[in-house]
Amino acid sequence: MTDRPDLAAMISPLSRALIDAELPVLHEHGLSMWAYSVLLALDERPLRTQAALAEAIGADKTRIIGFLDDLQRKGLIERTPDPADRRARVLSLTAEGRRVRDSAQAGIRRKEERLLARLSPEDRRGFLRALRALAALPPEEIAGA
């Protein structure tokens, strides 16, 4: 006996639909989903290594090198030698990278607003509060719960 579907059964179709809605916005900005994830992860703070970036976005560190090369070629990120460890690279956004990220994010948020407008203001606040709380949990805590 169940009073609701499993969380994954509800979230997975929603997640796929949100990604499908984001893709045209990202393509308009010349970004893939992984490239956009990199721009979001770098935000206003540089990351010290490609491995740290890969961990932050949940990617294999060998898979993101091509995305980093492309973002650097486009002038959206910089990879500079780490003064503390010359073998490592510090990754950071350029001004153009911030502009592209902000523009893409604004387009995505406009699409999200159409979806969120279907909720009452109270439900919307509660939904976003709960989603933030659950998204902040470490994966091992979710898996082990």
From TrEMBL:
Q: Which Pfam families match?
A: MarR_2
- Recall the GO molecular function terms of this protein's record: DNA-binding transcription factor activity
Q: Tell me the ranges covered by the HTH marR-type domain, including all copies.
A: 4-136
Q: Which domain of life is it from?
A: Bacteria
Source lineage: Bacteria, Bacillati, Actinomycetota, Actinomycetes, Streptosporangiales
What is the protein name given in its UniProt record? Transcriptional regulators-like protein
The Gene Ontology biological process annotation of the record reads: response to stress
Query: Which SMART domains does the record match to this protein?
Result: HTH_MARR (SM00347)
